[in-house]
Amino acid sequence: MGGIPLPGELGERAREILAGRVEPVPARDAATVVILREGREGIETYLLRRKASMAFAAGAYVFPGGSADPRDTDHAVAWAGPSPAEWGAVFGADDKTARGLVCAAVRETFEESGVLLAGPSAGSVVADTTGDDWEADRLALIERSLSFADLLDRRGLVLRSDLLRPWAHWITPEVEHRRFDTRFFVAALPPGQRTRDVGGEADQVTWARPADAITRARAGEIFLMPPTYRTLNELSAYEKVGDVLGTEREIVTLMPRIAEVDGEMHIVLDDDYRFGVA
């Protein structure tokens, strides 16, 4: 059985949870977006390295994303594409939760990469978000002094939910002190837009072929959380961004469990899956 050992306090906490003496922390709704582009040697994905000071996934290379903000469920958010009800059917969520997840996906992607999946109409997309005024809006979103609905309204934009595709659903293991109920989306980098080093929770950003990121993780050069590792491994089978976006995915909820292995507490997912993380 593969998995990640849980030493010290986490191991003791895992035993207490399994024994029913400690209640797991509730998982917060969150969204993650895998941004893809065509590279010279195949598809590439945008990754951020989280600062070592972060309380969750410190030092890990991750996709843009984060927790849903209560304001993400605001009906004032201008919307084009599949409805919240349609997204809810895909992810097994009610309409309100699905609306919040899609809005969080688009908002967090803009906050953490500068990429905005929105446009002046249902058939267009913003061509450039690199100006000082865009940067001011991005920072205001991060500081929560500006809501996503207000940003779109002020700029006359609509959220383009059709630019997203569903990919996966992961829930943080019960042993963790911070837990997230995360829906994974994939999206192509819109024509004309550019990612940029936006700082904040990340200290490094990069574009990488999924297979190359997996190779580096196996060599211990970078740290990948299990959901990121598995997603990159799945994406490495595709040659074109269009192939990824055209894939019909059955969304299965995955939550690595805690178990005792040879007297030691571990996080495991299944019997044949090796996490492959540093």
Look at the structure and give the mean pLDDT: 89
| Topology pattern, helix = H, strand = E | EHEEEEEHHEHHEEEEHEHHEEE
Beta strand count: 15
Name the CATH class. Answer: Alpha Beta
CATH architecture heading: Alpha-Beta Complex
First-residue to last-residue Cα separation: 17 Å
CATH homology-level superfamily: Nucleoside Triphosphate Pyrophosphohydrolase
Task: Provide a count of the helices.
Answer: 8
Give the helix/strand class: alpha/beta
Low-confidence stretches: 271-278
Q: What would you report as the Rg, rounded to the nearest angstrom?
A: 19 Å
Keywords: Hydrolase, Magnesium, Manganese, Metal-binding
Domain Nudix hydrolase: 26-230
GO molecular function: hydrolase activity, acting on acid anhydrides, in phosphorus-containing anhydrides; metal ion binding
InterPro entries: NUDIX_hydrolase-like_dom_sf, NUDIX_hydrolase_dom, NUDT19
